[in-house]
Amino acid sequence: MPRLLLIAATSYLLGSIPFGYLLVRIFRGEDVRRIGSGNIGATNVARKSPMLGLLTLLLDALKGSTAVAAGVLLNPASSPTIFERFSPADIPWRTIFPASSPELVIGAAVAALFAVVGHMFPIWLSFRGGKGVATGLGAFLIIAPKAVLLSAAIFFVLVLIFRYVSLGSIAAVAAFPNFALVLHEYGNAPVALVLMAMASVLIVIKHSANIRRLLTGSENRLGSRHA
């Protein structure tokens, strides 16, 4: 239990690094929270600068992956074999976690969940953060890569058809734990699956304002300056 608490605290701090806020502040001298939707995530940053938006997406995903990697390093169930499997040849095609190590998968899922929580509620910005999609993407790409790829496919199809980034994000996130279940990408550890589902639920809840706008037809489409 103390080790899981350490993993949770470390992952929260990594997840709470507000890259979107920092990039806009450094390169544009502005507060991204006063732009567009006021969100610090990649979509809102891209309204100010597409290049900074892309960089925010990559960095937010990277901090999620880094949190999971740190969770593995801090887990006593880790072995040299696990660390050797952190390679581009394995990810995103298959998980690095063997089904025989449920403790390791649970620790990784804890890391992923708290990285998402850190992004949503960063201590550095008075707990006003982003929605966690990119951070969750980076974190869960290591744990359940096939489920993430299928979820990403849903995202791109819906965005291409309807041009609502929020709709694509919500649908993809909601589908993710179901894909992880069907594909058995949770290390035969039901607790890990529950933690992954909790992260998905939090992300969907963070999109509550978008859901209301989608239902009323007032959500702005991709390319709008005020979504």
Can you walk me through this structure?
The chain has 227 residues and is an all-alpha fold. The protein has one domain. Helix content is 67%, strand content 0%. It is built from eleven helices and no strands. α3 packs antiparallel against α4. It is globular. It starts with a helix and ends in an 11-residue tail after the last helix. The model has no long low-confidence stretch (mean pLDDT 90).
What is the overall silhouette? globular
Mean pLDDT: 90
Report how far apart the termini are: 41 Å
Tell me roughly what share of residues is in helical segments. 55-70%
Q: How many extended strands?
A: 0
Largest sheet: none
SS-based class: mainly alpha
Number of helices: 11
Low-confidence spans: none
Q: Report strand %.
A: under 5%
Rounded to an integer in angstroms, the radius of gyration calculated over CA atoms is: 17 Å
Integer count of domains = 1
- In N-to-C order, the SSE pattern is HHHHHHHHHHH
Question: Quick summary of this structure?
Answer:
Helix content is 67%, strand content 0%. It has helices spanning 2-15, 19-28, 42-48, 50-73, 80-84, 102-120, 133-143, 145-162, 165-182, 190-206, 208-216.
